[in-house]
Amino acid sequence: MKIIKNINYVYQCEVCKAEYEREKDAERCEKLPAGKAIFKKGDKVEISQHDEYRPKELTNGKILKIRLYSPINAYQLAALLGLSCKSHFYIYDVKYPFGGISSHSASQLKLIKNK
Ligand SMILES: [Zn+2]
Q1: Would you state the pLDDT for residue 115?
Q2: Is 100 left (phi over 0), alpha (psi -120 to 50) or beta?
Q3: Which of 4, 25, 38, 97 shows the smallest number of beta carbons within 10 Å?
């Protein structure tokens, strides 16, 4: 039997930790600015993106988790949120006082109170 080596490398962007099969994609990702997260974990925020089906008690909550994404590998999410493809972007998980979590971009949130 012949042993054929088949090693697949995975390249990771050191900014957002996204993984790529091609080195140049990871390099391209790392060159995109990330800026700073606007909100902090624990901040109380209001979700400005109201819809009539959302009960009133579900319009504010606390930032539970902050995630950094790249428009290169999360391009569908970026497009959905209408975000620029020229920088990394943050997604904030908001926990409601009565339970439940939803994810939002910074433009959908308004700060009520700092942690
Ligand atoms: Zn990245």
Answers
A1: 83
A2: left
A3: 4
Q: In what order do the strands lie in the sheet with 109-113?
A: 101-105, 89-95, 60-69, 44-47, 109-113
Side chain identity at residue 111, one-letter code: L
Ligand 1 centre distance from Cα of residue 66 (Å): 15
The CA 107 to ligand 1 mean position distance, Å, reads 20
What mean pLDDT do residues 35-49 have?
91
Residue 36: helix, strand or coil by DSSP?
A: coil
Distance CA 73, CA 92 (A): 18
Q: How far apart are the CA of 103 and the centre of ligand 1, in A? A: 19
